[in-house]
Amino acid sequence: MPVAIITGASKGLGRALAGALAVRGWDLVVDARSAGPLEEAARALAGAGTRVVALPGDVADAGHRAALVAAAGELGGLDLLVNNASALGAEPLVRLADLPLEGLRRALEVNVVAPLGIVQAALPLLRQSSYWESYGSDSPYRGAAPYIGEPEGREMSDSPYYDASDVRPERRPGGAVLGISSDAAVEAYPTWGGYGAAKAALDQQSAVLAVEEPGLRVWWVDPGDMGTDLYAAAVPDDDADRPLPETVVPALLRLLDDAAPSGRYTAAELLTAAGSGTSGGAGSR
Question: Which of 23, 41, 107, 274 could join 198 via S-S bond, C-beta 3.0 to 4.6 A?
Fold first, then answer.
């Protein structure tokens, strides 16, 4: 059975994606900071007949990250790492002039440093994954370069960040890393500066990882507006109805089903492409 690590899986998008993968027969390693909600989620996930290892803890803790990867190894390997756990930096969100620097450090630690720490620990297992066949070409991307700010239509071969000689023709298939990004990473929204800066850093980090690890699929996805506890903590006075996280899961599953190339995606684009029967495109905003 394929194996996934999903951080922040006790509720919200992480919980919804874990449920969808469990139904598909994936074995799961899940984490969250609160033990009670995580154990409840794990019991429901195990009811689908999958093996579930639930490890409460903070992804900012190196020992906890190592335990997550070790648990995946005990299940047989690692095919998908989902960096979903997130921190706002301030609850509710505030303007940059009022943002506590310690809050910004926390946002960067959880949204940027911790994902890289898990990736570093998990790389040996991810490189050994044979869940997907290798890419059909030597390029780690297909089409236009998928990192932020690249002119539309510019090919990776024209990019100063890409050297075809770095891609080993003998590379083997590998697993996938999915980072949950945000439109705040590319848009300047008042009060979202600290969180947006952290997610922008995650985007760039993901783009570099994709170039440095061409045997892996690296996706960073803007899920769009969702009705989650995180959003409620960010903007408690906003009582607008927002889509449930479950509505975003089909977009994430499409990445898996299409063995999508590395790149930045939005859930809206992936869902639109699914409706039209075409492949989702890398290189959105």
Answer: 107
CB 240 within 8 A of CB 25: no
For the chain, what are the domain ranges?
3-276
Residues 31-83 pLDDT 10s: 999 999 999 999 999 987 899 999 999 999 999 999 999 999 999 999 999 99
Yes or no: say if 182 and 264 are a contact pair by the CB < 8 Å rule. no
Could you tell me the two tokens for 140?
């780690």
Q: What is the pTM of this model?
A: 0.85
Burial of 277: CB neighbours in 10 Å, binned 0-12, 13-18, 19+: exposed
- Rounded to whole angstroms, the Cα distance separating 95 from 193 reads 7
Average pLDDT over residues 207-228: 96
Query: Are 219 and 176 within 8 A, CB to CB?
Result: yes
Measured distance CA(265)–CA(127) in Å, rounded: 23
CA distances from 47 to 23, 25, 26 (A): 9, 11, 13
Is residue 221 within 8 A of residue 268, CB to CB? The reply is no
223 closest CA partner among 255, 249, 205, 197: 249
CB-based contacts of 242-248 (< 8 A; 24+ apart in sequence): 244/16, 245/12, 245/13, 245/15, 245/16, 246/16, 248/13, 248/16, 248/223, 248/224
Architecture of domain 3-276: 3-Layer(aba) Sandwich (3.40)
Statement: residue 133 has pLDDT above 90: no
